[in-house]
Amino acid sequence: MINIWRLTKLQLLSSFGLNKALHTKDPAERRKALLLSIAMIAGILMIGFVSYGYSRMMAKTFEQLGRLDLLLAVMMTVTSLVGFFTTVYKASGVLFSYKDYDMIMSLPVKTSHVVASRVLQLYVMNLFFTLLVMLPAGAVYAQLVKPGVLFYLFFLMTLLFISLLPIIAATIVGSLISWVSSRFRASRMLSIIFTFIFIIALMLGSFMLNGEEQQLTDVGEGLGKMIFKLYPLASVYVDAVCSYRVPALILFIAVSVLAFVLFSTVLATRYKAIHTGLMTSRAGRKYTMKPLQESSVFKALYLKELRRYFSSANYVLNTGVGMVLLLLMSVSLLFVSSEKLGTILAIPQLSEYLNTFSPLVVSLFVILSCTTSSSISLEGNHLWILTSSPVSKQAIILSKVAVNLTITLPVIAVSSVLFVVTLETGWTESLLLLVIPVIYACYSAMLGVIVNLKLPKLEWTSEVAVIKQSAAVLVSMVIGVLTLAVPVMLFMLIEHLNGDLLMLIYGVIIAAVCAGMYRYIQTRGERLFARL
Asked: What pTM was estimated for this model as a whole?
């Protein structure tokens, strides 16, 4: 057990950059670590506040239906599904395709201990998200229902086991996708396509399931049946936590733990064979000499960055899922009214939100699709090639910004037009709906690359540690979401405020900030790279 604990601790400290922050003697690094800690705490508090507000909003609806127990059922199901989606493309990188595999496997440590430490790393990552979602939901439920002492005991006990089954299912699915795609040429692209197809199919399936159940006369009963049909273990969870049924509690814990132990044991016995199978790819076709093509420096850098982006399934899936969800949402509004979509997503006021804040709704997905916040860190130990190249560092930075805009702008254009059609907005609202997200796309792309230059993470063993867990990604996302929250708060706090005028003024301010960041890159690009 001591080996498992040591490996898990080192991996987690390395993944979140805590090891360097704890042992550095450089005062500048210590100040940076302190600022990062403050930013992380602020981000956690902000996410917790949003989660609490969302739970409170849903609780009002469930209270009218007389089914407050559905609040915990919905949040537990959402936690499990989100954990499943994110682990599908994260599991392969954490468990198998990490750079120090050979070094780790050469240590005098059992293979089962290595596997256990890697699985525990996945578990801790998912447990963190589970706590952020379930603790606020549990607090709202306790305030409204005022349950007995057993609720708190059972609720806290089950928190530790919610994420176990999603981890198992996601690892199996993610590994199968990686294995199948590795049998073909262009394996990385196929892995990306297969994963997106699987996620979209699962989401569409849940929508169809919801559509069938909404025909029931008893809305509360119908919603409960829909949730329990979508994720049967949620029914056992509600019986244990809300009804204080000890057999249900034992069943929930036993199923989760036994499945997790069985999975880890089987994985340990076949770990090396699975790793070999996933890392083996089809040989490329025979090289054929072709005439060399000449291009500008910026175009060469842009194409190089674009190839780097699509060469990493984790990179594409983590930054591209926001654009996919935006496109799905905009297309679905052609066939489903915003009121019904709000019922499906358990957001009763979705129609009102879309009509008032549609430019910010689109911009939120743009913020979630920032590729530049990890683009510098992903250079890793190859960064010296860029820093020593006789090219403008401004061109290097802007090529990374251009890739981000290549990913976001086409989807923004299509989705914004679909929103204009489905929401039947006026010409002022339509113009804002088209322009504001474009401004935010430029803002997010330049903000991400500047933050990443300030907070690089060049020492990593797995891409997941950079793409999902680095400080630059967290800080840029927190700043981006906060800038979106400002106009929403102003609209809610100031009565009789013209929404179109607010969007126009705020769009001009963000555009001015974009111009300032572009000027900053022009004048400080060389110095920023010199610090790396």
From this structure: 0.68
